[in-house]
Amino acid sequence: MDATVDLLSHAPIFRGLSRPELERIAAGTTEVRAERGHQLFQCGDPCTGFHIVVYGLVKLAVGTASGAEKVVEIVGPGLSFGEAVMFMEKPYIVSATTLADSLLLVVGRDALFRALDDDPALARRMLANLSFRLHMMVKDVEALTLHSATQRVIGYLARLEDEGGGRVTLPAQKSLVASRLNLTPEYFSRILHELAGGGLVRIEGRTIEILDAERLQAYGSDGT
Q1: What are the C-alpha distances in Å from 71 to residues 19, 44, 151, 181, 197?
Q2: Torsion on CA atoms 30, 34, 38, 42, rounded to nearest 10
Q3: How deeply is 194 buried, as exposed, middle or buried, from its count of CB atoms within 10 A (0-12, 13-18, 19+)?
Q4: pTM higher than 0.85, yes or no?
C-alpha cells in the first residue's frame, strides 16, 4: 500500500492530493509489471479503470481493414490512458502493448469514482487532462488533413523538443513513429534524410539534433 501511494503521489493527475485521499485510491489500484511486447489489453476488452505509466513505454494501436496496424499514440512515463472509455463505461477501442519493460498503475474505476465524489478539485484536474487530450487529438486530425508529410514530421519534432534544448529522442523505433504520423517507414526516413541533407538536423540513431529551429520551421511551411 505504501509503495502504491508513493507512486500515485508522483503521477501528475493526482499531485496535491492528501495521503488519506491517495490511500483510498490506492486501495483500488493494481501495479502491473510487464516485459516488452506484453499486450495489456485488446480492442473490445472491458475497461474497469485507467492506466498510468510509471516507467516504460506503451503503444496504443488499432487494426485496419487490411490487417495492418495503425499506431494511435505512444505513451511514456507520467502519462495516462483509458480515462475516456472508463468514464463512458465502454470497452477499449484500441489495443495496448508495451514497447519496453514497464511498470504501470491500473486505477480501478469504483475507487476513483468515490474519490471524485469527495474531491471536486480532482474532478476538475481529470477534466483538464481529458480536455488537453481532446485538444491534441484535434490538432492531430488537423495535421493529418491539412499539413504535408514534411510539416507533420517537423511539428512532431517540435513537440518532442525538450525546453528548446535542440535535441530530441524518438520515443520508439522509426516504423512506429511513422505509423503515428500516418506515414510509411520509408517516407518518414526519406523526410528525415532530406532535413539532414539540408543542414537542418543531425541524426544519430533515434536521437535528432535540431541545428537551426527557425530554418526548420520555415522549411516546413514549404515542405511537401
Answers
A1: 37, 17, 19, 8, 28
A2: 10
A3: middle
A4: no
pLDDT digit string, tens, across residues 12-39 = 888 777 888 889 899 999 999 999 999 9
Say if residues 152 and 179 touch (Cβ distance below 8 Å).
Answer: no
H or E stretch covering 72: strand 69-75
DSSP string, 91-139: --SSEEEESSSEEEEEEEHHHHHHHHHH-HHHHHHHHHHHHHHHHHHHH
- Which one, of 79, 83, 96, 159, lies nearest residue 126 by Cα? 83
Q: What is the pLDDT of residue 81?
A: 92
Of 219, 100, 221, 103, nearest to 171 by C-alpha is 100
Query: What is the 8-class DSSP label of residue 13?
Result: G
> With contact defined as beta carbons under 8 Å apart, do 27 and 4 qualify?
no
pLDDT at 141: 66
